[in-house]
Specification:
There is one protein chain. The chain is an alpha+beta fold. The chain has 3 domains: 77 residues, no CATH class; 97 residues; 161 residues, no CATH class. The chain contains 14 helices and 9 strands. It has a 5-stranded mixed β-sheet. The chain has a two-stranded antiparallel sheet with strand order 1-2. A hairpin with a 2-residue loop joins β4 and β5. The radius of gyration is 24 Å and the shape is flat.
Length: 379
């Protein structure tokens, strides 16, 4: 898998405005239908064996292109220039200390994701777990199968001196995993620490409680949850999650939102980025104990989904499962708009033509307990 966070195409040409618009339309068509295949093919061919290449930035100059054969000229030039640049960057990345081009083994990538999660509650945008595998399972495999370098051990110890990381470690990972990590890294297990892991994790922090908000975008798989926003205030009030427009049970609210989107119960914190925003929580805030939803709460959740279908008449006889699969479980990108606003960009798909008949606003929303607006774009 190859991931590009942002991609820009800059073109300069001499001609009339109408000619420029025609080229713009042609480039949009190329970028949507032909560019991905060229990028995938070239990236696959140039990928280092047994390692991941991380590039902070890659600027490709394609030179002058013949407008009469723009499609072939652009794609041919892109493939050639991209391959040359990737091979040069891979060679540069082999040099230690180069932050803008790095080669990382799968072990380094997984360990880095674990440290990032302890600090922020999220996974790095460029990290993907194998389908069906949790972060705990991935890190556990490393702890059981590889020798942990001293630098990694020191970094775990450093991260776990913050209160948020301690809480996240205690609440998001099983006792057996906590014991294994402490055993293999020595984290929080020196003689001057208490023997019991739970007690040692509750000691006062020597570092700031709250980490700096992450600047990078957050990628989510439940972006369509925003479609439910008109129904959420009353839904939460009926279940006692909200009182006087204040969220009094945030952990239960998160569990309910995740259940609405997926039909699943508990989930790791790193899959709750959008639910946190909809609950007015900071992304960096660690979760408490896992919440198990009652049969009543699950039934009320299904009733909410059925109500959405009834009000959105274009869905006709769509089932709650169909609503989830078609609209709620949708990839999206969350970007921070300081100080308290967010932008959610939702990936468009074919059925989105039905959004034209949606009987409520979707461009911007703010639930009563949210500190700022959430702007929504379907792109």
């Amino acid at each position: 898998m190859h991931l590009i966070q942002q991609q820009y195409v800059h073109v300069e040409m001499n001609g009339t405005e109408s000619e420029g618009l025609a080229v713009q339309r042609q480039l949009a068509e190329l970028c949507q239908h032909w560019l991905p295949a060229v990028l995938e093919r070239t990236l696959e061919r140039c990928s280092p064996a047994q390692a991941h290449l991380y590039l902070e930035h890659l600027d490709l100059q394609l030179g002058s292109l013949d407008l009469q054969r723009l499609e072939h000229a652009l794609l041919e030039a892109l493939e050639q220039v991209l391959e040359t640049a990737l091979r040069e960057k891979a060679a540069t990345a082999a040099t230690a200390g180069n932050a803008k081009a790095q080669l990382k083994t799968p072990v380094q990538a997984t360990w880095g994701a674990f440290l990032h999660f302890l600090q922020t509650g999220q996974l790095p945008w460029f990290f993907r777990l194998p389908p069906g595998e949790t972060l705990e399972q991935a890190v556990e495999q490393l702890l059981l199968s590889t020798e942990i370098p001293a630098a990694y051990k020191a970094e775990v110890e450093r991260r776990l001196t913050t209160k948020y990381a301690q809480q996240r470690f205690k609440k998001q990972f099983s006792p057996s995993f906590q014991h294994l990590l402490q055993e293999r890294t020595g984290s929080l297990n020196e003689p001057n620490h208490q023997a019991d892991s739970a007690e040692s994790l509750s000691t006062a922090s020597t570092r700031p409680d709250q980490p700096e908000p992450a600047a990078e975008a957050i990628y989510v798989d439940d972006a369509g949850l925003v479609l439910l926003h008109p129904f959420l205030p009353r839904f939460f009030e009926q279940l006692g999650v909200v009182e006087n427009e204040l969220l009094v049970q945030p952990a239960r609210a998160l569990a309910l939102l995740h259940y609405l989107a997926t039909g699943a119960g508990t989930t790791p914190e790193y899959e709750l980025g959008l639910p946190k925003i909809l609950c007015g929580m900071a992304l960096e805030t660690p979760l408490g104990e896992a919440v198990e939803l009652s049969e009543t709460e699950q039934a009320e959740s299904m009733a909410l989904l059925e109500a959405v279908v009834q009000h959105w008449q274009a869905l006709k006889h769509t089932s709650p499962a169909g609503l989830r699969a078609t609209f709620l479980q949708r990839p999206g990108k969350l970007s921070r708009r300081p100080p308290h606003e967010w932008l959610l960009q939702v990936e468009q798909r074919g059925p989105d033509i039905l959004l034209e008949s949606l009987p409520w606003n979707m461009g911007v929303l703010r639930l009563p307990w949210m500190p700022g607006l959430l702007w929504v774009e379907w792109i």
